[in-house]
Design goal:
Elements (H helix, E strand, L loop, with lengths): L30 H4 L7 H7 L26 H7 L18 H14 L3 E5 L2 H12 L5 E5 L4 H15 L2 E5 L4 H7 L5 E7 L11 H10 L3 E5 L16 E5 L13 E5 L1 H7 L6 H5 L5 H8 L5 H21 L4 E2 L9 H7 L9 E5 L3 H14 L4 E2 L9 E4 L10 H7 L5 E5 L6 H17 L7
Parallel strand pairs: 2-3, 2-4, 4-5, 5-6, 10-11
Antiparallel strand pairs: 1-7, 6-7, 8-9, 9-12, 11-12
Length: about 450
């Protein structure tokens, strides 16, 4: 990780004084924050986080839409660029660096994941690529899960080797010996995996994987997009947690955003004026987007509970109908007991399930009837929306993988990924599913659906 002159600017309750004549002392965390308890429930942690009020006393924070910021005294600029003054004292340079509104959302994300700091980006892929490029230099080596989102897999397989001379060994993260053997001590810089894999819903043993990596001096980065509130990887030993905020955290399928949650030293190194990937590559979140998201996070726990509750009910009923269902909440899921052992209580087992229809043709027919015949859900990629979203993963979000890579990841041609929504009543939606399945089964011909 690159050295940085910048002190830890990401947490503070200090406000800028009327004059710029302040001492240059900075704090990684304030005394107030050091005294805050470590909440096990993410909802409790969010409630205990600092509440930012509006400029005129509004209960909601103001939106700081400025690209650049003024100072009272000319000497202040040089002190800011030297790293003596920063956002911890309410001094801001430029919104590609820290922005007050984005910083507030980042504090919420840090509270959600139980990390010292966080900062938000313009997309989930921006968060992933920025972290990888910050932590792994040219000639470096990554060990990563075979079962990853297609975009992440493509980044590690094609882009980073070509552009940055960074290579990756893909492993089955549920085979701990395989993971340990793949780590080359002194060369491997990072272990990367998803808490619940996309789209196969395999659950990673975060505590054991973190232990193995740390024993060999390797940083652990976990993509927790599929399991906000459900799993807290940092509390289980991970060093860095990444999110595509576009999904469950946003909840509206209307925003593209990401987040990096981890040590303050990492966030500040990524904002370093000379070597920081967030500062120099510029994956900047718009302040208006940050405000929108900050208003949605407080009810994330309620939304996740309903997503997860319905997913469990539907998965259980689908299995009774004889469908091949993959869902971590089912007792026959290979990692059910593992997830139950470290999942946050009351949030269930995740809001996604998979139905394996064996062939792409059968998968497409099922989705066609679910959308066009009974309105159970929508054929669309992404997840975390209030409507149920469905896609055949092998030909969509995992299409970047070749046939061999899909086989290793456990992605069959007919795997239908469903992000279960919560709009409408549960029984109304289940009735729609049953009717669509009945139409599929009654259709003996191979004519148009």
């Amino acid at each position: 990780m690159a050295e940085t002159k910048t002190q830890s600017f990401v947490f503070s309750d200090k406000k800028r004084a009327g004059s710029d004549a302040l001492d240059g002392e900075n704090f990684i965390t304030t005394k107030k924050q050091q005294m805050l308890p470590s909440w096990e429930d993410p909802a409790a942690a969010l409630a205990a986080a600092r509440h930012e009020f509006g400029e005129h006393g509004g209960v909601n924070m103001s939106i700081e839409a400025s690209a650049t910021f003024t100072v009272m005294e000319p000497e202040t600029l040089s002190r800011m660029f030297a790293g003596e003054l920063g956002p911890d004292r309410d001094f801001f340079i430029y919104s590609r660096h820290f922005n007050p509104t984005v910083l507030n959302l980042s504090r919420q994300m840090a509270a959600l994941e139980g990390t010292e700091a966080a900062y938000c980006t313009s997309s989930g892929m921006a968060a992933i690529s920025s972290v990888l490029l910050q932590l792994v230099g040219s000639g470096g080596h990554v060990v990563a899960s075979q079962a990853l989102y297609g975009g992440t897999h493509a980044l590690l397989t094609h882009f980073l080797p070509r552009a940055c001379n960074i290579t990756t060994t893909f492993v089955d993260v549920n085979d701990l010996d395989m993971v340990s053997n793949a780590i080359v001590q002194g060369r491997t810089k990072l272990l990367y995996f998803e808490s619940i894999s996309n789209p196969t819903l395999r659950v990673a043993n975060v505590p054991e994987l973190s232990r193995i990596a740390h024993e060999k001096g390797v940083t652990v980065v976990v993509d927790n997009t599929f399991a906000p509130m459900v799993i807290s990887p940092a509390r289980l030993g991970a060093d860095v947690v990444i999110h595509s905020i576009s999904k469950f955290i946003s909840g509206g399928a209307d925003i593209i955003a990401g987040a990096v949650c981890g040590p303050a030293s990492l966030v500040n190194s990524m904002m370093d004026l000379h070597q920081g990937t967030l500062m120099l590559l510029g994956p900047t979140m718009n302040a208006k987007v940050a405000f929108e998201l900050s208003e949605r996070i407080p009810h994330l726990s309620l939304r996740m509970k309903e997503h997860c509750h319905r997913a469990l009910v539907f998965a259980t009923r689908m299995k009774k109908l004889g469908l091949k269902v993959i869902y971590p909440g089912l007792e026959d899921h290979p990692q059910h007991t593992l997830l139950k052992s470290f999942a946050n209580k009351e949030y269930g087992y995740g809001g996604l399930l998979c139905v394996d229809m064996e062939t792409e043709e059968r998968a497409n027919k099922l989705m066609y009837h679910l959308q066009n015949s009974t309105q159970f859900g929508l054929m669309a990629v992404s997840l975390g929306y209030y409507e149920t979203l469905m896609s055949c993963s092998g030909s969509s979000t995992s299409s970047e993988l070749n046939d061999g890579e899909k086989a290793l990841a456990g992605i069959s041609a007919g795997l239908v990924r469903m992000s279960i929504g919560y709009i409408g009543t549960l029984e109304q939606r289940w009735s729609q599913f049953e009717k669509a399945l009945s139409r599929l089964q009654d259709s003996a011909s191979f004519n148009k659906y």
